[in-house]
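@channel anyone free to eyeball this complex?
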Amino acid sequence: MSETKHKSPYALEVRGLTRSFGKRKVLDNVSFQVKHGEILIIMGGSGCGMSTLLRHIIGSLKPDAGEVYIDGTEITKLNDLELAKVRKRFGMLFQTGALFNSLTVGENVALPILESSDVAPHIAELVVKLKLELVGLTGFEHLKPAQISGGMKKRVGMARALALDPDLLFCDEPTAGLDPVMTAVIDTLTVDLTKKLGLSAVVVTHDMTSAFRIATQMIFLFEGKVIAAGTPEEIKANPNPILQQFINGDADGPIPLKLSKDDYLKRLLQA
Amino acid sequence: MQITERTEENIPIISISGDIDLESSPKLRAFLKPKSSQKTPKLLLDFGGVNYIDSSGLATLIEYFQAVQSFGGKLTLASLSPRVKNVFEIVRLEQIFSLHPDVPSALAALKA
Amino acid sequence: MLRAYTELSLQAFASIFAHSPLFGQRGWRLSALFDQMVAIGVASMPTVGLANFLLGIVLAIQGAGQFEKLGATDMVANLVAFSVLREIGPLITAVIVIGRSGSAITAELGTMKVAEEIEALNVMGIDPVKYLVVPRLLAMILMMPVLTVLGEGVGLFAGWLISVTALHLNPIFYVSNSIDAVEQKDLFSGLLKALFFGAAVGTVACYYGMQVEGGAEGVGKATTKSVVTCLTTMLAMDALLTTLIYFVL
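replying in thread with the prediction:
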């Protein structure tokens, strides 16, 4: 879409998002904004509610409280039809790629184009070629997902997410399972898309190198709360010990990764 | 999206304005189809009024470019906004299309 | 659960008409329907044929045992024709289709659900009901009667074959006896049953597939539940329709 068509200064705005599964509060009053053309990185340990947060933002899950605005449109209370309309303007890369196994790579990328418009099959085919080139997979159109590696599947997922030229791109761990060269390719692509086309991106990742390479804004989730937010420089300078442990990848620190040693020995010896 | 056509020095100049997207690119395709089947030797597309082009728009142009290869037809594009030019560059299409800052320079390139 | 099932079924039936390519709209695809008709229908033909063939033989031999006592072995033709068309044909065809295609539909949709493919469709703004459920349901409804007719044909032939060879009945006489024994109503009641069985199996199998949660284990459990529910629903429907047809027609 052209820049003049933006309804809100924010591509995405999340206000007070709260969600519990049973007694466990997975999201606790989460708020943040993403301006157009920005890349927001969501960091946090495994099981800290990052994927759940993403699912709420794309409208797959409904929150207990709070709102999600996509370019000014509140989506948590939309019906399926209205939501489908908003969803045509964003792309999503799933953690595993979520490719359709019965379709070829090319058909997977062409699917959103053919299902949402009247463009001729030949045009869709050319668009597929353009998108596959973006993710470095030219010539792989005719293979089935089962014939390619996990990292390739993810890149096909990226090509499919970009098929309709979205304004907003969501990525769930885009670089997990990719080699360093392909990680750099995907990172450069994400930055190029935002800088040159004005796309905004929200990326959930555990890969700190990649995160600091592409982020314009970062938030850090811990036990369902945003405990730090800011530019990459601000995050690096943030003294919070939990955050520092995570960024530096230290085994020892305040993050309760394992039960303490005493606890472990006590449980081990329990009858 | 609006398409208008005029002729300058025997070269058809097609001015496009508005957005070239999934909805309008079939219209552009329908307009270009007869141009390639009539083997139009030279064609200038004036992008002065285009503020957005998506991948289906690019694909439509590529399809025309493929079609004119068979009879050596020439195609130039003029007056692309920086943003539209970026869309071409991100998929390296500036390497196959001849892009020009304005209509006179695009015309000159066609006559050369 | 019943509510979710009803919702999905209503939505699917509504989508068949509301997004029909026959009315020139961009909806479910005819090509997807044909693919499913091949997967569900054409591929089931050998098994459906074999099952009906074997039951045709069993019916004729069992019938002969009883009719012999009455000295009316000729009546085997009546028995085979009547029961194959009214009951055995539609029933055994549905059983085979449930085991073969109903389970496959649940397993396939369930695997797609687990692999986030259904969510991906939703996120792309593509309605999974329109894209996945409708072609499968329609193919089921269309192919069940076709398979039933085929199965009935094979069953009748098997009855004739065994009667002529093993029971030494007159081949021509057998055929004319069969034709005398059945009315048009028998054929239609069998096809009516098949149509309803198709709709029931299609909706139940799709429902269980779309419900799957919890990985490969969830797919397995859902498939088992789907087959059991399809079978019981089909038998209940059979009893209901048989009663209705008996009293109404």
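from a first look: Chains B and C do not touch (no CB pair under 8 Å).
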